[in-house]
Amino acid sequence: DDPSLERHFKGHRDAVTSVDFSLNKRQLASGSMDSCLMIWSMKPQMRAYRFVGHKDAVLCVQFSPSGHLVASGSRDKTVRLWIPSVKGESTVFKAHTATVRSVHFSSDGQSLVTASDDKTVKVWTVHRQKFLFSLSQHINWVRCARFSPDGRLIVSASDDKTVKLWDKTSRECIHSFCEHGGFVNHVDFHPSGTCIAAGGTDSTVKLWDIRMNRLLQHYQGNSVVNSLSFHPSGNYLVTASNDSTLKILDLLEGRLLYTLHGHQGPATCVAFSRDGDLFASGGCDEQVMVWKTNFDAADYGEVVKPQKCGNSVDGTHGTGVEMDCGIHHKKTKTQDSGRIHEQQEEETSLANTLEHIMGQLDVLTQTVSILEQRLTLTEDKLKECLENQQKIIQNKTN
Protein backbone atom coordinates (compact mmCIF):
# COMPACT_ATOMS: atom_id res chain seq x y z
CA ASP A 1 0.00 0.00 0.00
CA ASP A 2 1.16 3.50 -0.79
CA PRO A 3 1.25 6.16 1.95
CA SER A 4 -2.12 7.92 2.16
CA LEU A 5 -3.33 11.26 3.49
CA GLU A 6 -5.15 10.63 6.76
CA ARG A 7 -6.06 14.07 8.19
CA HIS A 8 -5.34 17.61 7.43
CA PHE A 9 -5.35 20.57 9.77
CA LYS A 10 -6.02 24.21 8.97
CA GLY A 11 -5.59 26.95 11.56
CA HIS A 12 -2.19 28.57 11.07
CA ARG A 13 -2.19 31.99 9.46
CA ASP A 14 1.23 31.73 7.84
CA ALA A 15 3.75 29.11 6.69
CA VAL A 16 4.14 26.06 8.97
CA THR A 17 7.78 25.64 9.99
CA SER A 18 7.91 22.54 12.19
CA VAL A 19 5.85 19.47 13.20
CA ASP A 20 6.22 16.77 15.87
CA PHE A 21 4.08 13.95 17.32
CA SER A 22 3.68 13.24 21.02
CA LEU A 23 4.79 9.80 22.23
CA ASN A 24 1.27 8.32 22.17
CA LYS A 25 0.32 9.98 18.84
CA ARG A 26 -2.67 11.63 20.54
CA GLN A 27 -1.29 15.08 19.84
CA LEU A 28 0.64 16.81 17.09
CA ALA A 29 2.50 20.09 17.63
CA SER A 30 3.21 22.62 14.90
CA GLY A 31 5.03 25.94 14.79
CA SER A 32 4.45 28.70 12.29
CA MET A 33 5.63 32.04 10.94
CA ASP A 34 2.39 33.39 12.51
CA SER A 35 4.23 33.34 15.91
CA CYS A 36 1.88 30.65 17.25
CA LEU A 37 2.30 27.09 18.39
CA MET A 38 -0.68 24.80 17.70
CA ILE A 39 -1.41 21.50 19.43
CA TRP A 40 -3.76 19.38 17.32
CA SER A 41 -5.70 16.45 18.71
CA MET A 42 -5.57 13.28 16.61
CA LYS A 43 -9.09 12.43 17.83
CA PRO A 44 -11.75 13.72 15.43
CA GLN A 45 -13.98 16.54 16.74
CA MET A 46 -11.43 17.50 19.42
CA ARG A 47 -10.48 21.16 19.19
CA ALA A 48 -6.93 22.37 18.68
CA TYR A 49 -5.08 24.61 21.14
CA ARG A 50 -3.42 27.78 19.90
CA PHE A 51 -0.56 28.88 22.17
CA VAL A 52 0.46 32.51 22.05
CA GLY A 53 3.60 33.84 23.73
CA HIS A 54 6.38 34.18 21.20
CA LYS A 55 6.81 37.70 19.84
CA ASP A 56 7.91 36.54 16.38
CA ALA A 57 7.90 33.50 14.07
CA VAL A 58 8.09 30.07 15.76
CA LEU A 59 10.69 28.11 13.77
CA CYS A 60 10.90 24.82 15.67
CA VAL A 61 8.81 22.66 17.99
CA GLN A 62 9.41 19.33 19.70
CA PHE A 63 7.61 17.17 22.26
CA SER A 64 9.70 15.92 25.18
CA PRO A 65 10.19 12.11 25.11
CA SER A 66 7.44 11.68 27.73
CA GLY A 67 5.09 13.98 25.80
CA HIS A 68 4.42 16.18 28.85
CA LEU A 69 6.32 19.21 27.55
CA VAL A 70 6.77 20.95 24.22
CA ALA A 71 9.83 23.07 23.45
CA SER A 72 9.69 25.85 20.86
CA GLY A 73 12.30 28.20 19.44
CA SER A 74 11.62 31.52 17.77
CA ARG A 75 12.89 34.45 15.80
CA ASP A 76 12.36 36.42 19.05
CA LYS A 77 15.63 34.73 20.27
CA THR A 78 13.86 32.82 23.06
CA VAL A 79 13.03 29.21 23.80
CA ARG A 80 9.76 28.34 25.53
CA LEU A 81 8.74 25.18 27.34
CA TRP A 82 4.97 24.60 27.25
CA ILE A 83 2.61 22.24 29.07
CA PRO A 84 0.44 21.03 26.17
CA SER A 85 -2.92 21.42 27.95
CA VAL A 86 -5.89 23.79 27.86
CA LYS A 87 -4.08 26.53 29.78
CA GLY A 88 -1.01 26.36 27.57
CA GLU A 89 1.27 27.79 30.24
CA SER A 90 4.93 28.20 29.40
CA THR A 91 8.26 29.29 30.81
CA VAL A 92 10.49 31.38 28.63
CA PHE A 93 14.25 31.68 28.58
CA LYS A 94 16.48 34.00 26.62
CA ALA A 95 18.47 31.39 24.78
CA HIS A 96 20.53 33.12 22.10
CA THR A 97 21.48 36.53 20.74
CA ALA A 98 19.71 35.80 17.42
CA THR A 99 16.93 33.66 15.90
CA VAL A 100 16.59 30.15 17.40
CA ARG A 101 16.18 27.69 14.50
CA SER A 102 16.21 24.31 16.24
CA VAL A 103 15.27 22.70 19.57
CA HIS A 104 15.82 19.03 20.45
CA PHE A 105 15.41 16.99 23.65
CA SER A 106 17.89 14.27 24.59
CA SER A 107 16.25 10.81 24.69
CA ASP A 108 16.19 10.84 28.52
CA GLY A 109 14.37 14.19 28.44
CA GLN A 110 16.94 15.82 30.73
CA SER A 111 18.76 18.06 28.24
CA LEU A 112 17.82 20.40 25.42
CA VAL A 113 20.06 21.41 22.52
CA THR A 114 19.35 24.63 20.59
CA ALA A 115 20.84 26.08 17.40
CA SER A 116 20.81 29.69 16.30
CA ASP A 117 21.72 32.37 13.78
CA ASP A 118 24.25 33.57 16.38
CA LYS A 119 26.40 30.69 14.96
CA THR A 120 26.28 28.69 18.21
CA VAL A 121 24.79 25.46 19.47
CA LYS A 122 23.81 25.56 23.16
CA VAL A 123 22.98 22.82 25.65
CA TRP A 124 20.57 23.36 28.59
CA THR A 125 19.10 21.37 31.46
CA VAL A 126 15.35 20.96 30.98
CA HIS A 127 14.32 21.02 34.65
CA ARG A 128 15.89 24.33 35.54
CA GLN A 129 16.31 25.70 32.01
CA LYS A 130 19.89 26.23 33.12
CA PHE A 131 22.50 26.97 30.44
CA LEU A 132 25.30 24.38 30.44
CA PHE A 133 27.64 25.16 27.51
CA SER A 134 28.04 26.49 23.97
CA LEU A 135 29.57 24.85 20.90
CA SER A 136 30.90 27.57 18.66
CA GLN A 137 32.98 26.54 15.65
CA HIS A 138 30.43 27.22 12.92
CA ILE A 139 31.11 30.38 10.94
CA ASN A 140 27.54 30.98 9.76
CA TRP A 141 23.93 30.43 10.94
CA VAL A 142 23.29 27.04 12.54
CA ARG A 143 20.02 25.63 11.18
CA CYS A 144 19.71 22.37 13.07
CA ALA A 145 21.20 20.45 16.03
CA ARG A 146 20.33 16.96 17.31
CA PHE A 147 21.41 14.64 20.12
CA SER A 148 22.42 11.09 19.20
CA PRO A 149 20.03 8.37 20.47
CA ASP A 150 22.44 7.60 23.37
CA GLY A 151 22.91 11.32 24.14
CA ARG A 152 26.71 11.19 23.87
CA LEU A 153 27.04 13.06 20.58
CA ILE A 154 25.52 16.15 19.01
CA VAL A 155 25.31 16.79 15.28
CA SER A 156 24.80 20.30 13.84
CA ALA A 157 24.14 21.66 10.34
CA SER A 158 24.96 25.15 9.15
CA ASP A 159 24.93 27.72 6.38
CA ASP A 160 28.73 27.42 6.42
CA LYS A 161 28.02 24.26 4.32
CA THR A 162 29.32 21.89 7.00
CA VAL A 163 27.82 19.24 9.24
CA LYS A 164 29.72 18.99 12.53
CA LEU A 165 29.81 16.10 14.97
CA TRP A 166 30.48 16.97 18.64
CA ASP A 167 31.33 14.96 21.74
CA LYS A 168 28.93 16.14 24.47
CA THR A 169 31.31 15.29 27.34
CA SER A 170 34.52 16.84 26.00
CA ARG A 171 32.58 19.54 24.04
CA GLU A 172 35.02 19.05 21.16
CA CYS A 173 34.18 18.92 17.47
CA ILE A 174 35.13 15.35 16.48
CA HIS A 175 34.58 15.71 12.75
CA SER A 176 33.37 18.13 10.08
CA PHE A 177 31.62 16.77 6.98
CA CYS A 178 32.23 19.27 4.20
CA GLU A 179 30.75 17.48 1.17
CA HIS A 180 27.64 19.65 0.87
CA GLY A 181 27.51 22.07 -2.04
CA GLY A 182 25.12 24.46 -0.29
CA PHE A 183 23.60 25.46 3.04
CA VAL A 184 22.67 22.45 5.17
CA ASN A 185 19.06 22.85 6.34
CA HIS A 186 18.50 19.69 8.34
CA VAL A 187 20.43 16.84 9.91
CA ASP A 188 19.50 13.85 12.07
CA PHE A 189 20.83 10.61 13.52
CA HIS A 190 19.83 7.20 12.22
CA PRO A 191 17.95 5.32 15.03
CA SER A 192 21.01 3.03 15.40
CA GLY A 193 23.18 6.09 16.18
CA THR A 194 25.81 4.93 13.69
CA CYS A 195 24.88 7.12 10.71
CA ILE A 196 23.63 10.65 10.08
CA ALA A 197 21.60 12.10 7.21
CA ALA A 198 21.66 15.70 6.03
CA GLY A 199 19.79 17.66 3.37
CA GLY A 200 20.08 21.19 2.07
CA THR A 201 20.02 23.78 -0.67
CA ASP A 202 22.12 21.68 -3.08
CA SER A 203 19.03 19.40 -3.44
CA THR A 204 20.86 16.35 -2.07
CA VAL A 205 20.40 14.00 0.86
CA LYS A 206 23.63 12.48 2.11
CA LEU A 207 24.12 9.65 4.62
CA TRP A 208 27.42 9.21 6.43
CA ASP A 209 28.71 6.42 8.65
CA ILE A 210 30.03 8.36 11.66
CA ARG A 211 32.32 5.57 12.87
CA MET A 212 34.42 5.77 9.71
CA ASN A 213 33.31 9.23 8.56
CA ARG A 214 32.53 7.74 5.16
CA LEU A 215 29.77 8.78 2.78
CA LEU A 216 27.34 5.85 2.54
CA GLN A 217 24.55 7.06 0.29
CA HIS A 218 23.92 10.11 -1.85
CA TYR A 219 20.48 10.98 -3.22
CA GLN A 220 20.37 13.71 -5.86
CA GLY A 221 17.03 15.50 -6.00
CA ASN A 222 15.95 18.48 -8.06
CA SER A 223 14.83 20.84 -5.31
CA VAL A 224 16.00 22.28 -1.98
CA VAL A 225 15.57 19.79 0.89
CA ASN A 226 14.10 21.58 3.93
CA SER A 227 13.60 18.73 6.38
CA LEU A 228 14.06 14.98 6.83
CA SER A 229 13.04 12.26 9.27
CA PHE A 230 14.13 8.62 9.78
CA HIS A 231 11.52 5.91 10.16
CA PRO A 232 12.07 4.29 13.62
CA SER A 233 13.07 1.02 11.89
CA GLY A 234 15.93 2.91 10.26
CA ASN A 235 15.00 1.46 6.85
CA TYR A 236 13.29 4.54 5.41
CA LEU A 237 13.82 8.29 5.29
CA VAL A 238 11.22 10.93 4.41
CA THR A 239 12.14 14.39 3.08
CA ALA A 240 10.24 17.67 2.51
CA SER A 241 11.27 19.82 -0.46
CA ASN A 242 10.74 23.21 -2.05
CA ASP A 243 9.09 21.55 -5.09
CA SER A 244 6.09 20.88 -2.74
CA THR A 245 6.77 17.13 -2.57
CA LEU A 246 7.54 14.66 0.20
CA LYS A 247 9.84 11.83 -0.84
CA ILE A 248 10.27 8.47 0.87
CA LEU A 249 13.66 6.84 0.35
CA ASP A 250 14.24 3.12 0.84
CA LEU A 251 17.66 3.00 2.53
CA LEU A 252 18.06 -0.78 2.18
CA GLU A 253 17.59 -0.63 -1.59
CA GLY A 254 19.17 2.82 -1.89
CA ARG A 255 16.35 4.19 -4.04
CA LEU A 256 13.44 6.59 -4.12
CA LEU A 257 10.29 4.71 -3.12
CA TYR A 258 7.48 7.31 -3.24
CA THR A 259 6.95 10.94 -4.21
CA LEU A 260 3.92 12.45 -2.46
CA HIS A 261 2.06 15.53 -3.66
CA GLY A 262 -0.20 17.33 -1.19
CA HIS A 263 1.14 20.76 -0.37
CA GLN A 264 0.63 23.83 -2.54
CA GLY A 265 4.06 25.44 -2.54
CA PRO A 266 7.20 24.44 -0.63
CA ALA A 267 6.95 21.57 1.90
CA THR A 268 8.88 22.94 4.87
CA CYS A 269 8.90 20.19 7.52
CA VAL A 270 8.24 16.49 8.01
CA ALA A 271 8.38 14.04 10.94
CA PHE A 272 7.55 10.37 11.57
CA SER A 273 5.56 9.43 14.68
CA ARG A 274 7.55 7.53 17.36
CA ASP A 275 6.18 4.16 16.13
CA GLY A 276 6.47 5.04 12.44
CA ASP A 277 2.79 4.38 11.57
CA LEU A 278 2.19 8.02 10.70
CA PHE A 279 4.16 11.01 9.48
CA ALA A 280 3.21 14.67 9.45
CA SER A 281 4.21 17.46 7.10
CA GLY A 282 3.83 21.22 7.02
CA GLY A 283 4.18 23.76 4.25
CA CYS A 284 4.11 27.36 3.08
CA ASP A 285 0.39 26.74 2.31
CA GLU A 286 -0.29 27.07 6.09
CA GLN A 287 -1.43 23.44 6.21
CA VAL A 288 -0.46 20.53 8.43
CA MET A 289 -1.01 17.11 6.87
CA VAL A 290 -0.97 13.71 8.55
CA TRP A 291 -0.15 10.69 6.40
CA LYS A 292 -0.59 6.98 7.09
CA THR A 293 2.68 5.22 6.33
CA ASN A 294 1.10 1.96 5.07
CA PHE A 295 4.47 0.24 4.73
CA ASP A 296 4.15 -3.53 4.79
CA ALA A 297 4.82 -4.44 8.44
CA ALA A 298 7.10 -7.23 7.21
CA ASP A 299 9.38 -4.57 5.76
CA TYR A 300 10.34 -3.37 9.20
CA GLY A 301 8.41 -5.28 11.82
CA GLU A 302 11.24 -7.22 13.40
CA VAL A 303 14.77 -6.06 12.95
CA VAL A 304 18.11 -7.30 14.18
CA LYS A 305 20.69 -8.29 11.62
CA PRO A 306 22.94 -5.44 10.50
CA GLN A 307 22.83 -5.04 6.77
CA LYS A 308 25.95 -4.35 4.76
CA CYS A 309 25.41 -1.12 2.92
CA GLY A 310 27.57 1.12 0.85
CA ASN A 311 25.35 1.71 -2.11
CA SER A 312 24.62 5.04 -3.68
CA VAL A 313 21.84 6.19 -5.89
CA ASP A 314 23.85 7.94 -8.54
CA GLY A 315 26.64 5.41 -8.38
CA THR A 316 29.27 8.06 -7.81
CA HIS A 317 29.90 7.50 -4.12
CA GLY A 318 30.58 4.60 -1.82
CA THR A 319 30.37 1.93 -4.53
CA GLY A 320 32.18 -1.25 -3.64
CA VAL A 321 32.45 -0.11 -0.03
CA GLU A 322 30.70 -2.54 2.28
CA MET A 323 29.72 -1.02 5.58
CA ASP A 324 27.64 -2.18 8.46
CA CYS A 325 25.64 0.93 9.18
CA GLY A 326 22.97 -0.50 11.41
CA ILE A 327 20.31 -0.58 8.70
CA HIS A 328 18.53 -3.84 9.42
CA HIS A 329 17.09 -6.96 7.82
CA LYS A 330 14.23 -9.11 9.07
CA LYS A 331 14.68 -11.45 12.01
CA THR A 332 14.10 -15.21 12.09
CA LYS A 333 11.93 -16.53 14.93
CA THR A 334 13.63 -18.40 17.78
CA GLN A 335 12.23 -21.00 20.18
CA ASP A 336 12.93 -18.60 23.00
CA SER A 337 10.43 -16.12 21.61
CA GLY A 338 7.82 -16.94 24.32
CA ARG A 339 10.27 -16.24 27.12
CA ILE A 340 11.63 -13.19 25.34
CA HIS A 341 8.08 -11.94 24.83
CA GLU A 342 7.27 -12.16 28.55
CA GLN A 343 10.53 -10.41 29.41
CA GLN A 344 9.76 -7.72 26.83
CA GLU A 345 6.30 -7.20 28.32
CA GLU A 346 7.77 -6.80 31.81
CA GLU A 347 10.38 -4.39 30.46
CA THR A 348 7.71 -2.46 28.57
CA SER A 349 5.45 -2.06 31.60
CA LEU A 350 8.45 -0.97 33.71
CA ALA A 351 9.49 1.48 30.98
CA ASN A 352 5.92 2.81 30.81
CA THR A 353 5.80 3.33 34.58
CA LEU A 354 9.15 5.14 34.52
CA GLU A 355 7.98 7.19 31.53
CA HIS A 356 4.87 8.18 33.49
CA ILE A 357 6.91 9.20 36.57
CA MET A 358 9.28 11.21 34.36
CA GLY A 359 6.31 12.91 32.74
CA GLN A 360 4.82 13.84 36.13
CA LEU A 361 8.23 15.20 37.17
CA ASP A 362 8.36 17.28 33.99
CA VAL A 363 4.96 18.79 34.75
CA LEU A 364 5.87 19.44 38.40
CA THR A 365 9.11 21.13 37.45
CA GLN A 366 7.37 23.19 34.82
CA THR A 367 4.61 24.19 37.28
CA VAL A 368 7.21 25.21 39.89
CA SER A 369 8.99 27.18 37.19
CA ILE A 370 5.76 28.97 36.21
CA LEU A 371 5.05 29.72 39.90
CA GLU A 372 8.58 31.08 40.28
CA GLN A 373 7.99 33.36 37.31
CA ARG A 374 4.70 34.56 38.79
CA LEU A 375 6.36 35.15 42.16
CA THR A 376 9.07 37.23 40.50
CA LEU A 377 6.40 39.26 38.71
CA THR A 378 4.53 39.80 42.00
CA GLU A 379 7.75 40.81 43.75
CA ASP A 380 8.52 43.26 40.94
CA LYS A 381 5.02 44.78 41.18
CA LEU A 382 5.30 45.03 44.97
CA LYS A 383 8.67 46.74 44.65
CA GLU A 384 7.18 49.17 42.14
CA CYS A 385 4.25 49.95 44.50
CA LEU A 386 6.63 50.57 47.42
CA GLU A 387 8.83 52.83 45.30
CA ASN A 388 5.77 54.80 44.16
CA GLN A 389 4.61 55.13 47.79
CA GLN A 390 8.07 56.44 48.77
CA LYS A 391 7.87 59.01 45.97
CA ILE A 392 4.38 60.13 47.06
CA ILE A 393 5.53 60.45 50.69
CA GLN A 394 8.63 62.40 49.61
CA ASN A 395 6.54 64.72 47.45
CA LYS A 396 4.19 65.40 50.37
CA THR A 397 7.02 66.14 52.81
CA ASN A 398 8.62 68.46 50.27
TrEMBL record:
InterPro entries: WD40/YVTN_repeat-like_dom_sf, WD40_PAC1, WD40_repeat_CS, WD40_repeat_dom_sf, WD40_rpt, WDR55/POC1. One of its GO terms (cellular component) is centriole. It holds the Pfam family WD40. The keyword Membrane does not apply. SUPFAM superfamilies: WD40 repeat-like (SSF50978). WD repeats lie at residues 9-50, 51-82, 93-134, 135-176, 177-218, 225-259, 260-292. It comes from the Eukaryota. One of its GO terms (biological process) is cilium assembly. Keywords: Coiled coil, Repeat, WD repeat. May play an important role in centriole assembly and/or stability and ciliogenesis. Belongs to the WD repeat POC1 family. PANTHER family: POC1 CENTRIOLAR PROTEIN HOMOLOG A (PTHR44019:SF2), WD REPEAT-CONTAINING PROTEIN 55 (PTHR44019). This is POC1 centriolar protein homolog A.
